Write a sequence for this structure.
């Protein structure tokens, strides 16, 4: 099962690293980081880089695509090389997935019309622009499309996908191997549990990331 993760300027590192670790660990799965051109691509802060080892043209029909989000997503919506690759690759995938604002890129590719989907809470309503039905859930699966909420939800999405694409025992074994047993110290990990004033502070953190 070949998984391709596209990188674009100002992606969020954990959007990539979480699913990459889960899926790459599973027997029979391999993950390739792709971009418009081979080479290093910088994350949100420009201080962390991952290397795309293949171009979009070199990986036209992977079994799975996993599109990350990031502060660069809004700019990437007009990147036809990226959006066109997602659109084309989706025709051949067994699974098409996203994390965080990556679902907006699926929307821009015309993949989510009339479908429920999730993404980062701050931009969730933007999915309506692409004919999708925004759902405030950790993971949403519709047919071969699996979307995840913000950042850390990528691990949940990858384990959900693994259970479907392989089997539950494999997904459980990977979950134990990475010791994914979260016990967050606060209840502010979603809008439902965030105390008054915390959403505004969180939005400030998101908009304060360097361009």
């Amino acid at each position: 099962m070949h998984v391709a993760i596209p990188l674009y300027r100002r992606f969020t590192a954990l959007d990539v690293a979480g699913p990459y670790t889960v899926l790459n660990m599973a027997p029979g799965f391999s993950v390739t980081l792709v971009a418009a051109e081979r080479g290093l691509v910088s994350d949100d802060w420009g201080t962390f880089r991952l290397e795309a080892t293949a171009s979009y043209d070199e990986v036209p029909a992977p079994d799975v695509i996993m599109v990350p989000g990031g502060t660069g997503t809004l700019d990437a919506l007009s990147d036809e090389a990226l959006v066109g690759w997602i659109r084309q690759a989706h025709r051949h995938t067994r699974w098409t997935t996203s994390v965080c604002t990556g679902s907006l890129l699926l929307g821009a590719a015309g993949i989510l019309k009339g479908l429920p989907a999730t993404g980062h809470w701050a931009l969730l309503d933007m999915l309506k622009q692409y004919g999708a039905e925004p759902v405030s859930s950790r993971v949403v699966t519709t047919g071969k499309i699996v979307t995840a909420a913000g950042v850390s939800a990528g691990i949940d999405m990858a384990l959900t996908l693994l259970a479907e694409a392989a089997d539950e025992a494999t997904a459980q074994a990977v979950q134990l191997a990475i010791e994914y047993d979260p016990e967050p110290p606060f209840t502010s990990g979603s809008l439902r549990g965030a105390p008054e004033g915390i959403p505004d502070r969180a939005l400030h953190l998101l908009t304060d990331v360097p361009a």
Summary: The mean pLDDT is 97. The domain at 2-182 is CATH 3.40.50.880 (Rossmann fold).
